[in-house]
Amino acid sequence: MSDSAQTRLAASVVLARDGEAGLELFMLVRHHQIDFASGALVFPGGSLDPTDSDPRLRAVSDGVADVSDEDCRLRVAAAREAFEECGVLLARLNGSDAIVDGATATALGARYRTALEAGEVGMADIAEREGLRLALDQLVAFAHWITPAYMPKRFDTHFFVAAAPLDHTLAHDGREAVDSVWITPDQAIAEADAGQRKVIFPTRLNLQKISQSRTVGDMLARSRTDPVVTVLPTVSKRDGQRIMHIPIEAGYGAADFAVNQTDSGVVPVKPQT
User: Fold this and answer.
1) Where are the domains of the chain?
2) d(CA 269, CA 248)
3) pLDDT at 59
4) Distance of alpha carbon 273 from alpha carbon 268, whole angstroms
5) What pLDDT shows up at residue 269?
6) Stated pTM of the model
7) Would you say 159 and 146 are in contact if contact means Cβ atoms under 8 Å apart?
8) Sequential DSSP letters for 158-186
9) How far apart are CA 23 and CA 180, in angstroms?
10) Inter-residue contact 182 to 24 (CB < 8 Å)
């Protein structure tokens, strides 16, 4: 269980597509002046916004009829972050089963993304004004990580996976994120190992877990059947090394990981055997 007095509830979304090199993920490079994971390669996401609790949202959303209020808020936040940070609009025109096309997403992004980030509008406002239903049924729960207790800034983050609409133009916002890339999980890990990218511990392990899937369909199918186990890492020292401990049931292949301490946080070296 998370402690709401110490952590901020957050949502993150892994947007994926099938590429020539295999499963590719859309990832952002965080601004170097941001105080959490600065300069790191991350999935789109952020803290929940008050507008994510708008009571109108259930009436304009698909896929939330049987979920809790908190899960509904998290899914709205994930969809909002995908639109705000990347330009992906997981929504349908009223009466349609199809996700809005790329031209519509781009036009609505130009109209609303800046105001959305500023908190001047919420997803319920956009849905009502534009005759949309939020396609929250496209989001599949994937992981749940809580920042360790010793960290000065803590998040209670729920990760979702989704297929990126192929005709949407994905681009970073240029504010919180200064760059973006389509990249395979294996490539992201290799570039982190080579010192070419910063990848913090939860992102690294989530990349490793996603790398078990070769297609978007496989990733979504695995996520629908694999249980989501909350990960609240603890740390100890062993033979002079820092060891991060997580539940083996979380599905990351090990319970103990040796890590190096860097300016951006912990970077996994190898699982302990």
Assistant:
1) 8-226
2) 17
3) 97
4) 14
5) 47
6) 0.89
7) no
8) EEEEEEPPTTS-----SSSEEEEEEE-HH
9) 16
10) yes
Helix (H) or strand (E) holding 41: strand 41-42
249 with 165: CB under 8 angstroms?
no
Closest alpha carbon to 177 in 21, 12, 48: 12
Nearest CA to 140 among 107, 162, 120? 162
Supply 269's token pair: 């070296």
d(CA 158, CA 48): 11
Q: Reduced to 3 states, what is the DSSP secondary structure of residue 24?
A: strand
Helix axes 102-117, 123-130, angle to 10 degrees: 140
pLDDT recorded at residue 259: 83
Mean pLDDT (10-residue bins), the chain, 273 residues: 67 96 90 51 94 97 96 98 95 97 96 94 98 98 94 93 93 62 94 88 95 97 97 89 92 88 45 48
Q: Among the CATH numbers 3.30.870.10, 3.90.226.10, 3.90.79.10, 3.50.50.60, which is that of 8-226? A: 3.90.79.10
Question: Tokens 């992102």 label which residue?
Answer: 203
Two tokens, residue 209: 């877990």
Phi and psi at 157, nearest 5°, equal -105, 130
> CA 219 to CA 13: how far, in whole Å?
13
Give the Cα separation of 99 and 134 in Å (integer). 9
Rounded Cα distance between 213 and 163, Å, is: 13
Instruction: Give pLDDT, residue 238.
Output: 83
* Cα-based angle 9, 11, 14 (whole degrees, multiple of 5): 160
